[in-house]
From TrEMBL:
Its EC number is 1.2.4.1. It comes from Mesobacillus maritimus. Pfam families: E1_dh. It catalyses: N(6)-[(R)-lipoyl]-L-lysyl-[protein] + pyruvate + H(+) = N(6)-[(R)-S(8)-acetyldihydrolipoyl]-L-lysyl-[protein] + CO2. It comes from the Bacteria. The keyword Oxidoreductase applies. Keywords: Oxidoreductase, Pyruvate, Thiamine pyrophosphate. This is Pyruvate dehydrogenase E1 component subunit alpha. The keyword Oxidoreductase applies. Residues 38-325 form the Dehydrogenase E1 component domain. Heterodimer of an alpha and a beta chain.
Length: 355
């Protein structure tokens, strides 16, 4: 029997529609958690908007904004347990903040400070991965270690739709399926890999259906619906703890540039961007909470003010942190320095250059 392309039917999970109205059974979540989800989204967006301004002022380096993807990141990370591990790419500010990384640490990273590129203190979050797709293999390695040590933890790899074209992504899914590892691959399908549209990344109608080829579970969720993402991720983590790896495709949109070095107006139509602005994740969740009488415009304004104050304080701390020294580079390679690293470090002169 021939297996024809795109025979698999994938139904996207959605709880709130674009206007914030319920379209399916309400997930088990209390009002306090609802407020927590929204406040984290506000914090992530506020950080993002400030980081863009700081980069334009030359006060931080290149930055990859996540505006528009708050629901995908916050909803997924909010479902994690403290013992779970996160393997981010360069755009996971929101998810990483929820799982324990400080804003100060992110600012240090964008400033080129070595402290910002290390694993977060008291948070199970690996350093930012720049190599596209490599974090998927790292997550599989971490998941395998957790399984061998009988730990009740799940490894979560965050990747974009463009990253799914990398061999590392497919190798990771294959390995996870064969060894039945506690891992979740969370794909944020934001429709663009820099200037390459999703249609040029894959011929399959969805990314979620790729899971079938590797013998693992796949699901597609509305990535701008924080409640749908949260409930979907809860189930994905439950399956993963049982040794059933999961591929989650969160359909969202990158409202801004790929990075601050990118100009999206050269390859995207304004009409496309405007249509997605109507699906904005914060706008949707805010409308839902107001309709439930647990939020209002005054509270919303105050929350953005609180978030701004937190970002300001975090940046001041980062800005007042001493710059890294050249010889410190060798302290972040291995836990214990090899003979070669010791020799290289000793070759650094007092002015920070090789002798």
């Amino acid at each position: 029997m021939w297996i024809e392309p795109n025979e698999t039917e994938v139904n996207r999970v959605q709880v709130l529609n674009e206007t914030g109205k319920l379209v399916r059974t309400y997930p088990q979540i209390c009002d306090e958690e609802l407020l927590g989800l929204y406040k984290w989204m506000v914090q992530a967006r506020t950080f993002d908007q400030r980081a863009l301004k700081l980069q334009r002022q030359g006060r931080i380096g290149t930055y990859a904004p996540m505006i528009g993807q708050e629901a995908a990141q916050i909803g997924s990370a909010f479902a994690l347990k403290e013992q779970d591990w996160m393997y981010p790419s360069y755009r996971e500010v929101g998810a990483s903040l929820v799982h324990g990384v400080s804003m100060e640490n992110f600012f240090l990273y964008t400033m080129g400070n070595l402290q910002g590129g290390t694993s977060a203190k008291n948070a199970n979050v690996f350093p930012v991965q720049i190599i596209i797709g490599a974090q998927c293999l790292h997550a599989v390695g971490g998941a395998w270690a957790s399984k061998l040590q009988h730990e009740n933890s799940v490894s979560v790899a965050y990747i974009g739709d463009g990253g799914t074209s990398q061999g590392d992504f497919h190798e990771a899914l294959n390995f996870a399926g064969v060894y039945k590892l506690p891992v979740v691959f969370f794909v944020q399908n934001n429709h663009w890999a820099i200037s390459v549209p999703r249609s040029k990344q894959t011929a399959s109608s969805t990314i979620a259906q790729k899971a079938a080829a590797y013998g693992i579970t796949g699901i597609q969720v509305d990535g701008n619906d924080v409640l749908a993402v949260y409930s979907t991720m809860q189930e994905a983590l439950k399956r993963a703890r049982e040794g059933k790896p999961v591929l989650v495709e969160a359909v969202t949109y990158r409202q801004g540039p790929h990075t601050t070095a990118d100009d999206p107006t050269k390859y995207r139509q304004n009409t496309e961007v405007e249509s997605w602005l109507e699906k904005d994740p914060l706008k949707r969740m805010k409308a839902f909470m107001i309709d439930r009488n647990i939020w209002d415009e005054e509270l919303d304004q105050k929350e953005f003010e609180i978030a701004n104050e937190k970002v300001t304080k975090a940046f001041q701390l980062a800005e007042n942190t001493p710059n890294s020294k050249t010889e410190e580079v060798f302290d972040f390679v291995f836990e214990q320095k090899t003979k070669q690293l010791q020799e290289q470090k000793s070759s650094i002169g007092t002015e920070g250059v090789l002798k």
